[in-house]
């Protein structure tokens, strides 16, 4: 579900009893920084900041609503937009059954739903049935691909304000976020209403108030004879409603792509081997993108949005690194094939340099590669707390900007701009890191640092991945 990007003009605030106002109350209650909320309002094109023509107003484009989430791309300070998301719990099957049964028991509300409307009166009906239809402050979880660690960042806040406007325009989007599409809700309300009407008619017949029996073909008295076979319905009755059955569930994620088929050799066309190579890469990327869309949760409360964009906009060098790191036909650090060497030469790099970059990409995607390629000075906060945690465990580390190097072991931790710790190992040979003129920080010419092991938010956990606790 999408909504067109809106212009920079400010819009009136939602009324207190609207779907959008309820969403904003929950979002603002979940926020830990009101300053970022103000920036988010400006980015979304609402509030006084937008009225004054604040930079970035109207920056939210193409919001998409799905089960348990709403996401959109938000233009920030860089040319390429950030991917922001809000997640919320879905209702269980039992909760949906309770809510829709309560709706079907109220003919006016049920008729409105079947006509395509979703009145705000559904909220108290759900509340009376013990169902919380609207999210609370503790239900909403923001995520964004930007480096800001705010909760929420200004991009997620902008999406939150845009979602408030979206819900006022189309409140069915909230039901989809809660786990049911509009078509499925209307179909179930229609089914429950029909069952309820059938029970009412049966009750009337048993009390003697039913319609007179149909007369036989030869009976001149009584109601006209119905020539339809028993148990049938007219086509006009069947297709008179706009309610359609719900769409089937998405197909499961396909298996990991295997070797592609054989391509023909055609004059003037790319070689069959090159086509097969590119087709295999396209299949892997397509599966990765699909898994990000279908993913509900990674088990740790994080979503795909806050991690790596499955289809990032990359430079030629970065796309070459991605290809070297993820293509099923390319080797990693161990042995370098002729194809790998040709790929490195195509971007003016040597195979060893590309292999090291590919290892960083496998470790953390674009963020992992940034840690390999550049050093920086992290601000006070997480970096200092991580260093203190290591010192408390007796691990003596030298400091060089964002790098912590063990004084007696060939291991190093690098702190990334995403707030994660990336472990490295010195492959220059046995002995303590930084010996043979490499310098106390382990960054000299004799050190040969390679990304190794998964990154982690905790430095001790990152070292544990190297087996160096």
How would you concisely characterize the structure shown here?
Residues 193-232, 424-469 are annotated as: Disordered. This protein is an alpha+beta fold and 469 residues long.
Name the overall outline: globular
Rg, rounded, reads 30 Å
Helix content: 40-55%
Which segments are poorly predicted (pLDDT under 50) over 5 or more consecutive residues?
1-16, 48-56, 296-306, 431-440
Q: Distance between termini? A: 48 Å
Count of DSSP strands: 9
Query: Which class do the helix and strand fractions yield?
Result: alpha+beta
Q: Proportion of β residues? A: 5-15%
Q: Note the total helix count.
A: 16
Strand-and-helix sequence, N→C?
Answer: HHHEEEHHHEHHHHHHHHHEEEEEH
Main β-sheet: number of strands, strand sense, barrel status? 5 strands, antiparallel
pLDDT averaged residue by residue: 77
Strand adjacency order, main sheet: 5-6-7-8-9
Keywords: Metal-binding, Zinc, Zinc-finger
InterPro entries: Znf_SWIM (IPR007527)
GO molecular function, one term: zinc ion binding
Protein name: SWIM zinc finger
């Amino acid at each position: 579900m999408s909504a067109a990007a809106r212009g920079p003009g400010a819009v009136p605030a939602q009324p207190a009893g609207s779907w959008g106002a309820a969403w904003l109350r929950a979002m603002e209650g979940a926020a830990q920084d009101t300053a970022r909320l103000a920036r988010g309002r400006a980015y979304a094109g609402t509030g006084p900041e937008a009225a004054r023509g604040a930079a970035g107003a109207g920056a939210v484009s193409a919001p998409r609503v799905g089960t348990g989430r709403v996401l959109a791309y938000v233009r920030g300070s860089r040319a390429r937009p950030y991917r922001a998301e809000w997640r919320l719990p879905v209702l269980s099957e039992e909760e949906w059954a309770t809510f829709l049964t309560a709706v079907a028991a109220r003919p006016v509300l049920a008729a409105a739903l079947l006509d395509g409307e979703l009145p705000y009166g559904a909220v108290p009906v759900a509340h009376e049935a013990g169902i919380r239809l609207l999210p609370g402050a503790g239900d909403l979880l923001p995520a964004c691909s930007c480096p800001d660690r705010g909760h929420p960042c200004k991009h997620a806040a902008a999406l939150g304000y845009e979602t408030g406007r979206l819900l006022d325009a189309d409140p069915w989007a909230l039901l989809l976020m809660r786990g049911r599409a509009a078509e499925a809700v209307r179909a179930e309300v229609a089914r429950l209403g029909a069952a309820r009407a059938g029970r009412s008619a049966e009750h009337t017949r048993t009390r003697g108030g039913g319609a007179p029996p149909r007369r036989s073909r030869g009976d001149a008295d009584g109601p006209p004879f119905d020539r339809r076979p028993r148990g049938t319905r007219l086509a006009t009755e069947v297709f008179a409603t706009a309610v359609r059955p719900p769409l089937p569930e998405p197909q499961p994620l396909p298996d990991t792509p295997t070797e592609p088929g054989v391509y023909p050799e055609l004059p003037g066309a790319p070689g069959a081997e090159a086509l097969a190579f590119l087709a295999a890469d396209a299949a892997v990327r397509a599966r990765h993108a699909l898994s990000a869309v279908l993913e509900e949760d990674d088990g740790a409360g994080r979503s795909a949005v806050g991690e790596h964009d499955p289809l990032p906009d990359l430079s030629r060098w970065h796309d070459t690194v991605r290809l070297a790191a993820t293509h099923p036909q390319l080797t990693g650090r161990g042995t370098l094939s002729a194809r790998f060497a040709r790929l490195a030469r195509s971007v003016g790099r040597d195979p060893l340099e590309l292999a090291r970059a590919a290892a960083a990409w496998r470790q953390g995607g674009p963020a992992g590669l940034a840690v390999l390629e550049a050093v920086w000075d992290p601000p006070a906060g997480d970096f200092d707390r991580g260093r203190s945690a290591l010192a408390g465990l007796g691990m003596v580390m030298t400091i060089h900007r964002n790098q912590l190097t063990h004084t007696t072991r060939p291991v190093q931790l690098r702190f990334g701009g995403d707030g994660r710790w990336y472990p490295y190992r010195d492959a220059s040979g046995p002995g303590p890191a930084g010996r043979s003129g490499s310098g106390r920080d382990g960054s000299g010419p004799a050190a040969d640092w390679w990304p190794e092991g998964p990154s982690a938010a905790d430095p001790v956990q990152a070292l544990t991945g190297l087996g160096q606790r």
